[in-house]
Write a structure and sequence with these properties.
The complex is a heterodimer of chains A (310) and B (291). Chain A is an all-alpha fold and 310 residues long. Helices cover 71% and strands 1% of the residues of chain A. Chain B has 291 residues and is mainly alpha-helical. The radius of gyration of chain B is 24 Å and the shape is globular. Classes of the chains: A mainly alpha (310), B mainly alpha (291). At the A-B interface, helix 1, helix 2, helix 4, helix 5 and helix 6 of A face helix 1, helix 4, helix 5, helix 6 and helix 10 of B.
Chain lengths: 310, 291
């Protein structure tokens, strides 16, 4: 970083020439310019390139050939696309419901008068897993859920329930990863919900109680509507994150068994970086983009229309 | 900044409720059990990593490391270049964090304080990038890095990370909340733009900047998708990729050694969190609420 003296000097030179330095038009470009160049090279350029590549057939070795909408036509009759999209939507929707409901209930349970040590313990342990990389979480849980030496199977087994062999069973592999994802990221939703809950002015709940509302009515008619911006934000951000899930499926099951945990981004990875079908993979990427963009636009639009704003 | 680490019971929607003591106790017990379930896998991992091969993974599960050993940790460097991977992860995370914040701070000052033709249009174009998922641009960026000869080089990961549109947006909004009268006062005293930015706005924005720094460091430290695509040789890998290689690569390590390696990667983050919990949690809350 620039030294204090240089900063001072730079300041003097600018101000002595033109007292209103912030009116110089080139100065704005000088400050914004580096970020704009990086944006053009690493986001805008690749964005346009990806759309162009989706119209070509290219394996990185032989020259690319223009196929027009060929990749998309092939994609829409590709049975794998339907399957991976279905898996991805199931994962994303389950993730949204579990996180929003679970996060809200946890926040409500903690946001009351309670033992300080217990409060600290719960806040800390619920948030801990969120700090850990998907790589570590995936490897750890592969062992936790192992039917022969995982502690989870052992203790549940003691209750007389036999758990499935999660990751070799096509029915149970996806639910297992949904559960692991919940353990991993519920801390984030919890914190967002807690912060949202604390923006609710206590006077309003008090006023409702004075008017004779019971706790149930206060929750449904005062707390929840006032938290709608938080709930909406948590829903959208969880959906967008979950829709792009890749790491746990890649590390734990590699998409199996029977492709039951293969998500859209995993399919993109396989086509692009293992089969080197650059055009086909770009077409998949365009589909991911269209879905993510629709949800983001829904956020902009919905936060104006449905959400209570103070 | 919103403080969610201390209970604001007065503000709680349910604080005034005259609850039956039994209901409260049931809730307390449930929360305690949830906490135990959340932390159990981590405790099991740490205990197992400190237990000798022969006794690890015995049933019923071991919750005390007996017989105690640190051999599992000393075995790691013989299997993967662990020290080198640790260094790679730190170097990458520091460059990504410092670099992206530097460019974001400059740009945010431009958008917040300077008048120039097209500034609004440029900001809107940048905001559009928030809708572009990483997976869409990764293929062209891969081809670009291949042509630059940067595959298997950390630069292929930190160069694209220098631009962080969310940071620019967040900081522009934050700078907008700082009164412009302060700028004018500093200008009268002879201060220039760089002085106003780095000596005044940046110190006044410490909460926002440290929040973004924590999130940026965390994202880089935990990134798996990027390194999987851009890095191939063990010497250039980062820790998340190294862990997976340790577990599934050629000559895969025994599970206890994998646990030891995960512990080394995870424990510093957990300790750092315990020390700076307040900053950590309020960062997430602040970004969550304004985002």
């Amino acid at each position: 970083m620039t030294s204090r003296r240089t900063l001072r000097a730079a300041g003097r030179v600018t101000t002595s020439r033109r007292p209103r330095g912030h009116r110089q038009p080139w100065l704005g470009y000088a400050f914004v310019g580096p970020a704009v160049v990086l944006f053009l090279v690493f986001i805008a350029g690749p964005f346009i390139a990806a759309i162009i590549l989706s119209l070509y057939s290219w394996d990185l070795l032989t020259p690319a050939t223009f196929v027009g909408s060929g990749n998309f036509v092939a994609l829409f009759s590709d049975p794998v696309l339907g399957k991976v999209l279905g898996t991805t939507f199931v994962f994303a929707l389950a993730s949204v419901v579990l996180h929003v409901v679970g996060g809200l209930l946890l926040a409500l349970a903690v946001n009351r008068q309670m033992n300080r040590a217990l409060s600290y313990f719960v806040r800390t342990t619920v948030f801990f897993p969120f700090l850990i990389s998907w790589a570590a979480v995936s490897l750890l849980w592969k062992y936790v859920l192992d039917p022969s030496f995982g502690f989870m199977s052992y203790y549940v087994g003691q209750l007389g329930i036999t758990l499935p062999d999660w990751f070799t069973d096509p029915t149970w592999a996806l639910p297992a990863i949904i559960g692991i994802d919940f353990w991993h990221t519920i801390g984030f939703t919890f914190i967002i919900m807690l912060a949202g809950l604390q923006t609710v002015p206590p006077e309003l709940a008090e006023a409702a109680r004075v008017d004779g509302a019971n706790e149930r009515q206060v929750f449904w008619n005062v707390t929840l509507p006032l938290m709608s911006p938080t709930l909406f934000f948590a829903t959208i951000i969880t959906f967008i994150g979950a829709f792009q899930v890749f790491d746990p499926m890649k590390i734990i099951t590699n998409g199996g068994p029977n492709d039951s945990t293969k998500t859209i981004v995993m399919y993109l990875y396989e086509q692009g970086f293992q089969a080197f079908q650059i055009g086909y993979a770009s077409a998949i990427a365009v589909i991911v983009f269209v879905i993510v963009m629709s949800v983001t636009l829904l956020q902009f639009w919905g936060s104006r229309r449905w959400v209570y704003e103070s | 900044m919103i403080d969610v680490t201390t209970p604001r019971t007065a503000a709680a929607g349910h604080a005034g409720r005259k609850k039956s003591p039994t209901g409260s106790v049931v809730l307390d017990v449930m929360l305690f059990l949830i906490g135990i379930v959340m932390v159990a896998p981590l405790v099991w991992m740490i205990v197992t990593s400190l237990t000798a091969h022969s006794a690890a993974f015995s049933l019923p599960p071991n919750w005390i490391p007996v017989p105690f050993t640190i051999d599992n940790f000393t075995e790691i460097p013989g299997l993967i270049p662990f020290g080198r991977m640790f260094l790679n992860s730190i170097v990458l995370a520091v460059i990504c964090t410092v670099g992206s914040l530097f460019f974001s701070i400059l740009a945010a000052y431009g958008f917040s304080r300077l008048r120039f033709r097209g500034s609004r249009a440029i900001l809107i174009a940048l905001l559009g990038a928030l809708m572009v998922p990483a997976q869409l641009v990764v293929i062209p960026v891969f081809i670009l890095m291949r042509n630059l000869g940067l595959i298997d080089n950390l630069a292929s990961l930190w160069l694209p990370a220098l631009i962080n549109v969310f940071q620019i947006f967040f900081l522009t909004q934050y700078f907008n909340t700082i009164p412009r009268e302060l700028d004018e006062a500093a200008r009268i005293d002879g201060a220039g733009n760089l002085w106003i930015l780095f000596r005044m706005l940046v110190p006044l924005s410490t909460p926002a900047i440290s929040a973004l720094a924590i999130l940026s460091f965390e994202a880089s430290w935990n990134n798996y998708f990027g390194p999987l695509i851009f890095l191939s040789s063990p010497e250039s890998m980062t820790l998340p990729l190294g862990l997976v290689t340790l577990q599934s690569g050629f000559g895969a390590a025994p599970a206890v050694v994998v646990f030891a390696a995960i512990t080394v990667v995870v424990l510093p983050v957990l300790i750092f969190f315990l020390l700076f919990q307040r900053t950590f949690v309020s960062s997430i809350a602040a970004v969550g609420i304004k985002g």
